[in-house]
Amino acid sequence: MDGTAPDFWPNSGYRLLARDGAGHLAVTDAFLRAYLQRPEIAPIAESCDAERALHGALMANPREAVGEARIDAMADEDARDNYRVMLAFRDRLIAAGTIEACYLDIFRQGGVTIPPMFVDQMAHVIARRIIDGTDDPFRARAAELLFREQTVTLKDGAVLLGDTETVEMLAATGGMGALGKLVVDSGAQARQVDMDVLQTETAAIYWDRNERYDTVLDISFARPGLDALCRVLEAWVRHFLQAEISIQPVQEINDEKWVWHLGLDAEASGLLNDLYQGNEVDDARMERLLSLFRLDFKDPNQMAADVRGKPIYLALCMTPEKRLRLKPQNLLVNLPLAAES
């Protein structure tokens, strides 16, 4: 590296957003217009006059209020549905003012009604914000876990994560795109394509392919990928909650005074709950445990009084289908924070 931090994830929309006084991502007209240009919303040849008129008005003023009558006037039912979903999300963004405030509000209110795609897009651009300026490819690759599902491979004791969408595409096409799909569909053997595992010596390959999602992260104990994930999760909490924490991998929970835990995914939440309550956990579930962590607050006064100064245990698990779907919101809504005065 030449000392200049690389730019990455240009399609996240990061460069379309402004910063508020707290360094959070302020919603801009340019960011809202990007949603109007998505294929689900942008007019096509068959679009009616009412749809074109509304789209044109919103491109001119993406914050313009839109009454139900203007949507009902559209001829195409799918277009009406898409506009309703997009405008509901737009209104939440505008009301919140920042991407972070909108994201937090969605999970603190419970009963999430925003489509998962929008939630992932918010996590994507916030992840870009919290690691802005990094020149560590492991940290950038680890941050992808905040918004993209991973497929897990256990090999020779290593825990390897590959982007699920990319893994499935390569499996379907042999890595040859549409041509590969034709080959596979014809019954011929597609060529094997291996995704590159990030290694310390070669990790810089990440930057030139940062939006291809085709590198593999090794999160085995004591490997750089797991350390990078810890640093990303620390930055996530710091950015949202203004809390300095330390997250470190551990190989087991050996704590007679274990008082608090949270899963970083749905499987892990269930597993930790059962272990904490002393319920029997079969070998198959335990084998799906990928990582354990200990989280400590650097200022114990930021914790709820009844657990102040105690460690918090985290876990990461894969599903029976060997998928990992991190839920970074768990770190924001399930930590035992002191009540705001």
Question: Which descriptors apply to this entry?
Answer:
single chain, 14 helices, 11 strands, four-stranded mixed beta sheet, 341 residues
Strand order of the largest sheet: 5-6-4-3-11
The overall pLDDT, averaged over residues, is 92
Percent helix range: 40-55%
Total strand count, please? 11
Compute the gyration radius: what is it? 22 Å
Structural domains: how many: 3
Low-confidence stretches: 178-192
Number of helices: 14
Q: Structural class, please? A: alpha+beta
Strand content range: 5-15%
What's the overall geometry?
Answer: globular
Task: Output the helix-strand order.
Answer: EEHHHHHHHEEHHEHEHEEHHEEEH
* Beginning-to-end CA distance, first to last residue: 46 Å
Describe this protein's structure.
This protein is an alpha+beta fold and 341 residues long. It has three domains: 10-130; 150-218, no CATH class; 224-333, no CATH class. It has helices spanning 29-36, 49-60, 68-72, 77-96, 99-109, 116-130, 137-143, 164-173, 177-185, 205-208, 224-241, 266-277, 283-286, 330-333; strands spanning 18-19, 25-26, 150-155, 158-163, 196-197, 215-218, 245-250, 261-263, 289-297, 312-317, 323-324. The strands form three sheets. It has a five-stranded mixed sheet with strand order 5-6-4-3-11. It has a four-stranded mixed sheet with strand order 7-9-10-8, with helices on both faces. Strands 1-2 form a two-stranded antiparallel sheet. The longest helix is centred in the first third of the chain and has 20 residues, at 77-96. Residues 178-192 have low confidence and may be disordered.
